[in-house]
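step 4 of 6: structure.
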Amino acid sequence: MGKVLSVSGLRKEYPKFTLDNISFEIDEGMIMGLIGRNGAGKTTTIKSILNLIHTSAGEIQYFGKSLNEHEAEIKHQIGYAGGAVDYYKKKKIKKIISVTKTFYSDWDDEAYRKYMDLFELDEDKTPSELSEGMKVKLNLTMALSHGAKLLILDEPTSGLDPVSRDELLEVFKLLAGKGVAILFSTHITSDLDKCADSITYIRKGQLQFSGTMADYIEKCKSEGIGETLEEIMLHYEKENLHEKFA
Amino acid sequence: MKNSRKLLGKEIKLAASPLSWLFTAFALMTLIPGYPILVGSFFVCLGLFQSFQSSRENNDILYTVLLPVSKTDAVKAKYRFVVLIQMIAFAISAVITLLRLTLMTKATPYVTNPMMNANQAFLAYMLVIFALFNWLFLCGFFKTAYKFGASFILFIVVSFIVVIIGEVLHHIPGLEFLNGTDTLCDKRMWIILAAGIVFYVLVTFVSCRVAMKRFERVDM
C-alpha cells in the first residue's frame, strides 16, 4: 500500500501551548482517527498538515512529496472539511461548485452528480439551509469530485445526531474501500471503534501513540490500563486530574 | 486560465458584496455642485469594505487558501477586485468630469461653486483616496487576514483629511486654478492628474507586495 501522508517531528509553538514531536503515517484506504481531549492539539496538527499555520519543525510529505515544495499539486489530491465551517452561507451550492470546479483540472462532474444524489444534497439550497451532517457531506462531495485521495476532516462528527454520525462513519468505510484515505479528528471514541484502522493519540501537545488501534488496545490491556479506547483515554486524562488536585 | 484570474472570478461570484458594485454609483456625485464631491470616493471604498465584511463572515480566506493556489495569488485577487471597483468608479467620474470640462464650462452652479469642482485635480484627489484605501485598509487587512476595524478607521481619518485639504487648497491665493471649470487646456492640471495616476499605481503595487509578505506570515 502506498503512503499517502507522512508526518514526522512536527512542532508548533504558541505562547501557552506547544505541539511537539508529532509523527504518524497514513496509507492508501486507511481510516485514521486523530484523538485527544479538547485542547490537546488535534486542530493544530490538522492546520499544520494543511499548511494553514507555520510550524517550527517537522517534515510533512504527501504521496512522497514535500508539502512545502509541492503545495498546489498536493492540494489537488486532498480534501478538507471542518466540522462547523461553512463557506458562503447564503450562496447556492451550484454557484459555489461552479466556481470551485474551475480550480481543479481533475474535476469529475459525473462523480459530483453521483455523490450529490448519494448524500441527497440539493444544489439549489444554500449552506445555511443545510444541517451540520449535510454540511460535512457537501464538503466530502466537493473533495471527492476532484478526486481527492486523502480526506482530512476536523471533528466531522461533532454536532451530529447518533443516526447521522453512524451514517457518516458508514460512508467513511465505503470510501476507504475504494482506496480513499481518511484522517479525522474526534474526541468521541465510539466513532473510532466503528471504523478506524489506526489512531494517533495526542495528549497535551505530545504524541501518546500512533499505530493500529488493535495494537494499542492490546498494549494497554496488557498493562492493565483499559480494554477500550474510552477506558484508556479516561485513564490518562483522569490521572492528570488527580495530579492537579494532589 | 491562470489562478489569479480564476480567483478574481471567485471574488466577483462568491466573495463580493452587492454593495461594492452599487456604491460605485456614488461616483455620480461628481455632478453635484456645492458639495464636497470627493466624499463620493470615500463611499466607493465604504462599498468595498462591505465585501471584506462579507468575506470574513463567509470564511472566504480559509476557502481560498485551501484551494490549489498560492497565498500570494489570493492577495493579488483581492487587489484586482478592489482595483476593478475603483476603476469603474473612476471611469464614471472621468466621463462626467470630461462632460463638465467640455459642455458645462460656463454653467453658473459650477462657476460659482465654493466647493470642489470636477476637473483633473479632482480626479487626482480621487486616485489619492483610492491609493490610501489600498495602502491603509487593504494592506492592513492582510496583517491578520481577519481584523480590519482599526485599518478602516485609520483610512476614514486620513481620507477625510485629504478631502479637507482638497477643499481648502483652491481657496489659497494663487491656487484658484485647482477649482477651474474650464481647465481642459491647462497643462498644470494634466500634470497633477498624471501625478495622481503615478501615486495610485505605485502605492497600490508596493502595498500589494507588502500585503503578500504579510499574508505569508499569517497563521490561519
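step 5 of 6: annotate
 - Chain B has a mean pLDDT of 95.
 - Residues 3-217 of chain B form one domain.
step 6 of 6: archive
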